[in-house]
What we know:
Layout: H1 3-12, H2 15-20, E1 23-24, E2 27-28, E3 30-31, E4 51-57, E5 68-77, H3 82-93, E6 97-99, E7 107-118, E8 123-134, H4 145-156, E9 161-162, E10 171-173, E11 179-190, E12 198-210, H5 214-231, E13 233-235, E14 241-249, E15 261-270, H6 278-288
Parallel strand pairs: 3-4, 9-11
Antiparallel strand pairs: 1-2, 4-5, 5-8, 6-7, 6-10, 7-8, 11-12, 12-15, 13-14, 14-15
Amino acid sequence: xxxxxxxxxxxxxxxxxxxxxxxxxxxxxxxxxxxxxxxxxxxxxxxxxxxxxxxxxxxxxxxxxxxxxxxxxxxxxxxxxxxxxxxxxxxxxxxxxxxxxxxxxxxxxxxxxxxxxxxxxxxxxxxxxxxxxxxxxxxxxxxxxxxxxxxxxxxxxxxxxxxxxxxxxxxxxxxxxxxxxxxxxxxxxxxxxxxxxxxxxxxxxxxxxxxxxxxxxxxxxxxxxxxxxxxxxxxxxxxxxxxxxxxxxxxxxxxxxxxxxxxxxxxxxxxxxxxxxxxxxxxxxxxxx
Length: 289
């Protein structure tokens, strides 16, 4: 199911919204496009309010660290206070969840702002803007520090979900199942020993723990940090070590957008084929001639 379909189903499955919205063709008046005009048979001659329209603007906003914005507009008659109930129900639909569609993601959602407005006549509305944060695959190439850290965390918390290891459902409630996500920040070539046979790489990784329970969140993220600090290394897939140089926890960070744990390490990549010296290469070629 694609992202638009998952968002629509999420709104449609809300018992609160079903009870508050008008109906069109036997379903709650929730639309991904412009709502049908009031002369359409689907309204059955009844009021077309309250109703909801939503759109996805997949334009990245670097300032807010989002890959797009979910804009949801609720309309109702001016004399009704139901608009506030609809806003609360919409926010609840996207609080503490991950959506994993076929066309990207997974995505989390963070409320950004609500703008009330008044239309001509007796119709009022509220435009609810929700930031969308994408947790795209971070795997690189062997030896891969992201895969290694994912496996390390999974061994420490086998009941949790780790993006990149576990298969996510279309909808994951992070208040019930904490979700770890490891994100590569930087990867740099540095100097080290035996550089004729090994290329040394410094990497910095951010670890997000998607869990709204603040007490559980800090306990779990601190446990991961302390375990890494004690072990001082993480074993990569080729059984070589990544030596840890820094472990930092920032409990004030936004766990959805920034991550709370930062891990820095250094590992080596074997130069499987030694580079021939230019003079020796010329000598060999001369002999062959």
